[in-house]
Input
Amino acid sequence: MSKFELGITTFAEVLENPKNHISVSYDERIRQVVDEIKLADQLKLDFFGIGEHHRKEYAASAPHMILAAAAPITDHIKLSSAVTVLSSEDPVRVYQNYATLNALSHGRCELMVGRGSFIESFPLFGYDLNDYHNLFSEKLELLLNIKDQEKVTYKGDYRAPINNLGVYPRTKDLTISVAVGGTPSSVIRAAKQGLPLFLAIIGGNPMMFKGLIDLYKKEYLAHGHDQDQMFISVHSHGYVADTFEEAYETYYPSMEQAMNLIGKERGWSRYTKQTYDQAIDMNGALYVGDPAYVAKKIINLKKALGINRFALHVPVGYLDHDLVMKSIMLFGTEVKKIVDSDL
Output
């Protein structure tokens, strides 16, 4: 059985400090993320993923560039997008960027693609949101063709044709995974193509996602893929501190800020302490607490869902960089020690 992996994800958040209404600069936040990756690598965490966004609150519009900066100063950790919004990207350029990153990292690159839960990239790059689903399907097919073949011939609806042209540089063993929220059709697509699944669980009871994971496993095997190559990851928001009380009090303002900002745009109910309490509960999707509590939730998740990797997303809203680093430190030492000893 393969080793259970632990990792970190971030969007390089730059929300303002609610106390003084000052935001960290984009330049500084990007450099901070490189420091976070370096620390995670030193702690022997397995994975670090950066999500592509194109809005004021996030600095990571080009995750591959930040990951490339971290490649020569890390030795062990897998470096991944989390996610690349493939629908509004050119698959040729995506492959070239991540093939280059794979070379710089000596084969530690992963490329996680998804449709994106944020839509700012579509008008920015001239795509029609009415094509949201078809764009991803067609571009994923092209990306996989590029991965498997040096010379590519392609004709589709959303990109100029390619007639037997080479895509360079080539790289070996580039892992391409598919990120999904809660859509069964997305899970089935990943399974049919034999691609690793990365499931975002950011609300509700995580055990409710067992049906989706079981569906993925069933379809994966039904399409003749090797069970030993099956790989399922989950990422969820969280924060680790020395004590449960410290984690609880420190992290709530970050969650309240971020969830109400996005919730206002999407018509969600207001995020409250009651919402927070339910999410922090052992049956909730928020991994906040002292190392023992967070580790217990991860162990329960692994055993119930049969996953191969858990990634903690920190921060969500504003959080001092020192606190982010402390959380990563505790996650990579105390939480990791407990999880490793149990599984």
Summary: The first strand starts at residue 5 and ends at 10.
